[in-house]
Amino acid sequence: MAEARSAVSEPRVSKFEEDKTTAPDVLDAWRRGLLRRFFRTRNLIRNGMWPTSTWNLFALVTPLTALRLADWNAARPITNQLQKVEDLICLPTGCPVVIKSVIGSVVVGLGFFIVVLYVRRFTLRALLSYRGWMYEPPKSQSVLTLIWGAMVRIVSGRHPLLYSCQRSLPRMSVPTLKHTLEHLLESLKPLYGEDSEEFQALKSEAKVFEQTQGPKLQRMLVLKSWWSQNWVSDWWEKYVYLMSRSPLPINSNYYVMDQNSWVPTHRPTSRAATCIYQMMVVKQKLDREQFDPLVIRNTIPVCMAQYERVFSTSRIPGEDMDIIQHKDPSESKHIVVLRKGVFYKVNVFSPRNRPVPPQILEKQFQSILEDAEVHQDSLCMGEESLPALTTLDRTSWAKIRKEHFSQGVNKESLDILEGAIIFLNFDTHSFKDYSPRAKYLLHGDGKSIWFDKSMNLIFFSDGRFGMNNEHTFADAPVVAHVQEFNMLNEVIGLHNTDGYANPVPCEQTENVKPVRLIWNVDTNLGGRIKHAMEAHQQNCENLEIRVSDFQHFGKSFIKKCKVSPDAFLQMALQVTYFKNAGKFALTYEASMTRLYLAGRTETVRSLTTYSVDFVKAFLDKNVPREEKIRLMLRACHHHQIMYKDAMNGLGIDRHLFALYVASRGLGHDCEFLKKALSIPWTLSTSQQPQQQIFWAPDCSLPQYFDKVSPGGGFGPVSDDGYGVSYMIPGENRFFFHVSSKRNSGNTEARKFTDQLFQTLLEIQELFDAQPKS
């Protein structure tokens, strides 16, 4: 049947495919390409000169030229040296003095400028390597830190572009082998018990490793740290993500939600139009480097390298290893829209490279909805479930892709899809509650999400939307930054009272209409799609997600307890897991290492002897209240130190991982490293960024209570464990996302969440009941 359909193309042609709009003329395309190359070159030069600037060069050359031409006696020591430089240049005989003076001054000034450039850059890199500021309270910093902060501001350049700070960021050093092994054993002591056979065996193996294989592998990592941007990030991307053969949904991709209860419009096409327009504005700003780099405490820059691949990126499956494909802005000017199994290519940039305004996108999206109703009945068997192929394990998907999508119309359509800026789906579902909507955003139904794309936008029939994101190209805070920009503008106002998109001034040009993508799904491919759908549906049914809003207290109460909000919640999670499982679990908390060049993440091992002492005391009715509080404050303080150590490159898990990769590269099979890395993360946790745009209003204000996002979440890392992410959006609430797998038999997301809320209230009662000082 599919062969017959492909032989007769007329029934498969929509009104969109008949569009005959002409491309921009050759001269205009050449002009725009030239301008694009000019601005890229200009940005490269500006980034290469930062923290200096062309004004610094001008300030050096101008006075030298003036001194040379004025020929003052007092300046003779300088002008004589300039004259020697002019003689060395070997200018033609009879060259005017003015020209010689200018050329000589430019040469000398340029030399001084290069010296100043590298002195400032390396000075700034050395200053940014200082980490004492992180271990001091912001309001009571030492004199040394205050002097350091002033020096950073003096040495730093003004008005940096998005990537200007990259060359001034310090490179992450490799922790010592002794440090990592000691902290590994310390982290496993509360899990196994110091006197247990498992712990004593690990302790002995660690000692042997430190004396035999360890030093050689450590030297290899140190050498790698000298020539690479980051000694672990490239291996992390390759071996943890690209070489993983597990399906992407639930196991790797994560989701992000929109506002918690407020919706700017209930018209999905109108909201999609404004969202896409805002994101194309973001994309254009990223391409032109018009975003300011993120800084901590308005002083310390973080690495922005992950922003390069936010848009126009796809993970391409391979039989042994996937690859990341990122399209240049000149090649990727469209999105792909899915509606009821029908795919469309939609140009979102005009011929003059400006974002298509929302009022035009709104009409195009509405036309797509109407056109899809006409064509959904003529789809080949299984064609409406094509996205299910991206839910397969990566090797199976790679083989199917090679067999069925390497030539012909399928290859053309797949190239368009994988080269798209964003994948967008107008879904027919709607979910009133957080939990079912979050669950759908994480794994879809096999027909709604192209999991290989860096960004999937799912618009529900009631106007709500969310995102599903591939994890290889960047970590969640980067995507959250893009989402925050869009949501902030939605709150400011992008729709009129009727819910339609507010018009944006635009050029009067003929816009290219959407083009329907054609697929050839034969019986063989249709059967494989059906198999993928069945397997994916089983995985979806096995997952449980609970998203809840805790409003009894928030950050303001925790501050009164004089502890870190993150540490406070981590201790609550430790208590809750012990209540839930009757034992302790190795706990993963993600932290960033973006204070270093090309840094990504590190692990904070939240289970410690201090947290165990607190949990046991907290659940013991015979322990006095004052002792429980003391133990919690001690555990929170230790956790906060560990978190800061992880941010400063002193974590142990990336080091263990890199040592293992190095051992495999040398042909060794290190049982100790394999054992240390195979202990399951039964409790995997992550705090989500609350607010990254510095000019955004305070989200804790009452008028934004219903407009903040609950954040997002992910699936459990261990089949017998929990995945927990949490958001602290203001002073008086928390959002929690808890995931588990039903077939475990030992985990239940709903029960865990209820126990967590109970624990938080018990801790609140503990502190409220203590005597006021």
Structure commentary:
- With about 775 residues, this protein is of the alpha+beta class.
- The protein folds into four domains: about 1-20 and about 245-540, 2-Layer Sandwich (Chloramphenicol Acetyltransferase), CATH 3.30.559.70; about 50-160, no CATH class; about 175-245 and about 650-680, Fumarase C, Chain B, domain 1; about 550-650 and about 680-773, Chloramphenicol acetyltransferase-like domain (Chloramphenicol Acetyltransferase, 2-Layer Sandwich), CATH 3.30.559.10.
- The longest helix is centred in the N-terminal third of the chain and has 32 residues, at about 95-130.
- It is globular and about 95 Å long.
- About 45% of the residues are buried.
- The model is unreliable at about 1-25 (pLDDT under 50).
Topology, pairings included?
Blueprint: H1 2-7, H2 26-49, H3 54-70, H4 76-89, H5 97-128, H6 143-155, H7 177-192, H8 197-211, H9 213-227, H10 233-242, E1 254-257, H11 268-287, E2 295-296, E3 300-301, E4 313-316, E5 323-326, E6 334-339, E7 342-347, H12 358-375, H13 394-404, H14 408-418, E8 423-426, H15 434-443, E9 455-459, E10 465-469, H16 476-493, E11 515-516, H17 523-542, E12 543-550, H18 555-560, H19 565-581, E13 587-592, E14 601-605, H20 609-618, H21 625-647, H22 653-665, H23 671-678, E15 683-687, E16 712-713, E17 722-727, E18 734-741, H24 749-768
Parallel strand pairs: 6-8, 8-9, 13-15, 15-17
Antiparallel strand pairs: 1-10, 1-16, 2-3, 4-5, 6-7, 7-11, 9-10, 12-18, 13-14, 17-18
Helix pairs in contact: 3-5, 4-5, 5-6, 7-8, 9-22, 11-12, 11-16, 19-20, 19-21, 19-24, 20-21, 22-23
